[in-house]
Amino acid sequence: MGIEMKGHLVLLLVAGLGLASSSRAADGIAVEGGWGDDSTTMVQISLTRQWDRKWFTDGNWYLSGYWEASVGHWHSTDAGGKGIWDVGFAPVFRFQPKAGGVKPYVEGAIGFHLISDTHVNAGRDLGSAFQFGDHLGVGLVFGDKGQLDLGYRFQHLSNADLKSPNDGIDFQQIRFAYYF
Description:
Helices cover 11% and strands 58% of the residues.
């Protein structure tokens, strides 16, 4: 992780902690870091709000989820690469066990993103500031109160051919969350 990426991560973390402490709507905070197409790195901070609703509760597992609001920064080291800010919002569905000390999960989401620039680098143009973002992830919830979460996500962003070009971009992310 380069010095510039570490600096952005610290800035996002401080901003997120400030927002989380002043927001009664959030019940968790997450930090993500990852890498993507065309030598693009990303850092992101998210505020989460767990849903009160659960489905398919008859067995040992159930389906629930949370709202996620995020702010991130991408940087491409390829020729013509630049920094891009990303603001997103998504409902995240999570399938997890009802009981256990360490609980594995599978999750997925489709949400909306606004990006500050459509040109990631000279060879990749996302076409519009409005992007759809979807992800699939796996992870573990742990801690004495289930307050810690470590996971992996594969995320894809594109404008779904609403505007040409629509090169899209994929990211692999490591995510750490803390629930208040």
